[in-house]
Amino acid sequence: MFKSLGLFEPHPCPDPDCKRVRCIFTHRQPVVVRKVSDTPKRRESTVHEIVSPVKKLKAATAATVRDTPTASKVTARSPVKATGGGPSVTVPSQARPVPPSRPTNINSNSYTNAGAWSSTGVPKLPINLRNSPQPYADRQKGLTTLYTQYAKLYSKLPASSSQLAHDHTFAEEASVSASSPNLRAYKTAIHHAAVSISRRPIPDSLDHPSTGTIKASRAAHEKVQLEAASRLTRSSIEKYCLPLDQFSLWRYPDPNDPALLQSKGEIPSAEGETHTCSRCAMGFIVSAEKLQERLGECKFHHGRVAPERVEGKRKWIYSCCKKERGEVGCEDGVHVFSEKEDDVALGRRVAWKSSKALAEDRAIGGDVAKMSVDVLGMDCEMINTTAGLSLARVTIVDENGGVLLDELVRQTVPILDINTRFSGIKVGDLDKAIMDLNSVRAAASLFIGPETIIVGHGLENDLRALRLLHEKIIDTAIVFPHDKGPPFRRALRDIVKEKLGYFIQDRTADLGHSSAVDATCTLDILKWKVREDKQDASLM
């Protein structure tokens, strides 16, 4: 069975006494070749026969290279047979230019060398696509189809954006190719993509939502629609304003109270007066002397108390130290006080002003420029002074979160506690403040007119700190009410987490609140409320 192939014929039979008639191995004796002795004369003759023609060929080659001005530095080597019966030797051949090699490391779904291709006319795919799930010809056809639609779409854009159609064509085709498991799916996806591009509105600027790939354009259009649905116009949010007859229910200062309108701020500081500490509920005499030595006279809990189940029993526990209600405070400080909701007493420290009166003062002073806006967000930060809770910072933002006013307030009375944990203001920050409360309030009136709608969370505290009487109020603590009703209120961070899905005020112990972030968040959750109400109305 092996004889016909003769696979074992070249090999001698391993059995020296083999008598088989049809042995698969050979039985021929190997031919012995006698080695020629390598004498010195023989070696000298051989070397002369080889070297002589090689020298002649080298000289001829050098002359040829000198006479050729365009010869490449890269030379090829080819065997040349020497004349005169000598042996074959390898010598350098005539120099020839070597063409540059094409790039071979181009992925089928990324066009890193797109700049090498023409930016005018139909773009071309690189010819050496690797790992491409579709044939080259079909991909080039799909690229041409997409480019035709992109070129029509961008026909009104500036000439400087001519490369835009190429870039978006390559990106769209690569996305379609990567997401198509076979050729049929690829062709269908290209067709749908071309139809989608052809139905877009013609853009007239580079930031138009119709520019970009299908995914990018869809996201841009959704953003525009979301912004349109969330637009805070006067007509869309006036229904959320707090009615005047509910100001007392939610403990807001009455903007029409004559006692407040006639306040003069005749007693700016309470030094020497006896008050009850708002932290430890102990009586003390207000004084700003020897504050460092007095540190520790007040032991208090800065956290809130809430019910918890401990060992099967319901107990009220402080969030700051997990101690039970009634235990000694976990933090040392000095005694501080607050006039709270005694608006008449607050008017004796700093006089109240209504937004209408501020607008009239501007008109009398010759400042008639209308800068007030329809809707804005406001947040204030307070510190403890000898006048009680005093305004330390006011931040006003517009509908889009742009900061209109962010100013620190210069204090005119001694500071007892800067309250960094909650105010976010550090020791020394107020040294850079320029304007006092009256000046900051006048600056705020540039944006707050009598008809301006102020949005905030727990705005009654901000209005009292600013000593501002205003009627158009939207309090997000009222728009998103507590389950127990007034006067209970939900925390802003809880509402933002529930409605918007992100966290704020999560580093209170280190940095305090950011008034700009808080003011912006109140506007954002109001936008969410407007969208939800519009959607509910459309379903009815």
From TrEMBL:
Q: Mind listing the UniProt keywords for this protein, alphabetically?
A: Exonuclease, Hydrolase, Nuclease, Nucleus
**Which residue intervals make up region (Disordered)?**
68-108
Location(s), subcellular: Nucleus
Annotated Gene Ontology cellular component terms: nucleus
Provide the primary localization. Answer: nucleus
Originating species: Naematelia encephala
User: InterPro entries, from UniProt?
Assistant: REX1-like_exo, REXO1/3/4-like, Ribonucl_H, RNaseH-like_sf, RNaseH_sf
SMART domains, per database record: EXOIII (SM00479)
Q: Could you tell me the Gene Ontology terms of the biological process aspect for this record?
A: negative regulation of gene expression
Q: Which residues cross the membrane?
A: none
Q: Mind telling me what this protein is named?
A: Exonuclease
Q: What family does this belong to?
A: Belongs to the REXO1/REXO3 family.
Please state every residue range assigned to the domain named Exonuclease.
374-535
GO MF, one term, reads: nucleic acid binding
Quick check: keyword RNA-binding in the entry?
A: no
